Amino acid sequence: MALRNQVFIWIGLLLALVLSLWVFRGILLPFVVGAALAYLLNPLVNQLQKWRFNRAWATVVVLFSVLTVVISLFFMFVPLIGQQIVGLIQRLPGYVGDLQALAAAWSPEINAWLGPERAAQLQTSLNDLTRQALGFIATLPAELVNIGLTGAAVVGFTVLAPVVAFYLLLDWEGMVRGIDDLLPKQHKGEVKGVLREIDKSMAGVIRGQGSVLLLDAAFYATAMSLIGLNYGLAVGLIAGLFSFVPFVGFALGLGLSVGIALVQYAPNWWMIVLVAGVYFFWQFIEGNVLYPKLVGSSININPVWMMFALLGLGAIFGFVGLLLAVPMAAIASVLVRYGVRKYKESSLYLGVRRRAPGDDAAS
């Protein structure tokens, strides 16, 4: 009965948390980003404390340094990036028309290669994809407004998120002690073990995968710009920043880059192959070098579960849900693995009844 009550209590707390997130989803963005920033910077603050800084000064130094770097990069690159992204959005319908013209010019060769029936199916698929892409481009400004990326929201976010991060960093040790005091004494060791697994998984998500995402964006943007691809900086950044969704960043960047390269370089096939080769080369580096070194096995989330979490939480909570999806999926993965372990240790799985202390004496 006691176990059943505990299960009901935890389920009730989980439902209350989800309901609170849904009710306050419109104001959560700066708090979510501030909490992620605090979690990311806490090891640096701890290191400064080891060097005889007090907690307040360590927090000020770390946060001020990071904000200085971010603001400097913002003023250096954002005008150019914004110009390229706006130009790319305006030019995309033209690129689509140019690709359709190329397809029409190559239609005899395509018909001879695939056959009339398959060529017609390919043309239909390309037309459907074109309509979807143009529809997405047409609704993009409205979607940005819907997720709150208006001028007032951006100003509020840039002011409030660092303030949230500052106060969380300042009281981080107190919050950890408070959580530790609230843990049930009988199961404190076991619960702390689960929390350590969650912390390891969250570190892999926010620190490890965040580092991979930034490296992806930097490499793709630099490589496409050096090749001379039109809007290469914007396309590379889009590919890198969408790489937190499994395979989506790679597929989106590859599709955009090869499509632009076909219009820009055809019939120079070597340049088109070079553009595609950059993506396949970096995908190999990411999978075999970056992820094992920076992320390792700490996340251990199935890509299908990751995409489900992104779509589900995005549909419920909007843009905030997209930010919460990956860390929430990491936490859920840890809890599911813990539940499976406990199930396999239980009499329900083993098929035996645990012996009570007086059973031996009675027999």
UniProtKB/TrEMBL annotation:
It is a multi-pass membrane protein. The keyword Transmembrane helix applies. Keywords: Membrane, Transmembrane, Transmembrane helix. It comes from the Bacteria. The chain crosses the membrane at residues 7-23, 29-45, 57-81, 147-170, 212-231, 237-262, 269-285, 305-336. Pfam families: AI-2E_transport (PF01594). One of its GO terms (cellular component) is membrane. The keyword Transmembrane helix applies. One of its GO terms (biological process) is transmembrane transport. InterPro entries: AI-2E-like (IPR002549). It is found in: Membrane. PANTHER family: AI-2 TRANSPORT PROTEIN TQSA (PTHR21716:SF64), TRANSMEMBRANE PROTEIN (PTHR21716). Belongs to the autoinducer-2 exporter (AI-2E) (TC 2.A.86) family. This is Putative PurR-regulated permease PerM. The lineage of its organism: Bacteria, Pseudomonadati, Pseudomonadota, Alphaproteobacteria, Hyphomicrobiales.
